Amino acid sequence: MLRLLSIVIFSTMSYDIKADALQLSWDWALSAKHDQLRESAFIKPNNDEQSRLDALLDVGASYGQWIGLLALYSQGVYQDENHRWLEDSHNQLIVRELAWQSTLDVAEHSYDFSLGKIRLDYGVSYGYRPLDMFKPYRQNPIGLSIEEGASVASLASFDESGEWTLLYTNSHWTDNDAEPFNAENQQQGIGVRRYGLHDNAEYQLIAYYDDVRHGSLGASWVSVPNPAWEFHVEALWQKQHKQFSLPTQPRHAVELSQQGSAWQTLLGSTYTTLGGHSFIGEYWYDSRAWSDEQWHKAQNQAHALQNITQSSSLAHSYAQGLSHYNLTEHSILLHWSWDTNAWLQWQENSHWAWLGDVTPKVDLLISPQDGGVIATQWLTYQWIDTGYASVDLEFTARFLSGKSDSAYAQINQSHTLTFTLKGKF
Predict the structure, then answer these.
(1) How many CB atoms neighbour CB 190 within 10 A?
(2) What is the pLDDT of residue 15?
């Protein structure tokens, strides 16, 4: 039985096949995750802890103008609940990316054309990215994470100061098992994007119309005034959005409904020292999330339902509020990481040379409206590096704490521990 912490084995193998310019890369991973569980206002778990072993095989390929990334994902290779290997595993073949990319020449103009399933990462922030609007991605996940692209047709034209892109996207092609909230937010639409450079800054402007938002406008701005400081801003307005709504009657379930306009805005900065320390601070606001008043109302109603045997299952429906992209309207993220090699280049004492193989990182996600905190720390040690092969050890721990009535406290995992072995050959 897996205990105390999870073991993640991640190895990477890559090679090129020269025939017909075919290039292949192989990545595989085994991830065993241990969760310590707790009761919330919405759900009472059957066990105090759970552990599970997952497996992943990624195959990346490029051939001429074609690119692809396929994943074979096996969940529950081992589960400590039934002590079985492979029998209860859930296997999926996931097309993460598959696209044709080319250059089209029309008259005296040249255009970049892309068609297929592609990841569009227009966000510029660290903790949350409002402009990842076509298929949102998890930020800084622990363990295995399978991210898919959206179906895209884009035509890009470049000028002296930037790029214009006309694009069509459709997020309905999803091989991953989509949660109900994500399935309802699958969209298709058309839009235009402007990316530009101005002195030491870059900006984006996006106008997009789809069948879920019914119109959205987005923008971002990044400035690097000097080598130590970076500032970024990101914002998105949408005409309509979907949200889980609290019932007006006490013995009714939470339902997904169409709501009016919504804003997401983010402000952040990065400060980097000569000694390799990097600090990121970000604040963002998401009007689609439940307010502090709504969270307290949900907990009170769920507690009342749990005390009634006939309606206790209705209390579980309130946990759907945890499916929103942001759980609280206001969020603050504090991040620290240390590039020890940058620090060592200023040291004359060789006794600290081993520290160059260590990379620590810490995230604090704070909800100021209700006092919730999620703390995550990574500690990576490069065990072997021959130039042709490398092996890294990584320990990760995520703790959900803060006030007992906060939104983060309603997540049933109180903490998750992982141990990672990463290899490259």
Answers:
(1) 13
(2) 35
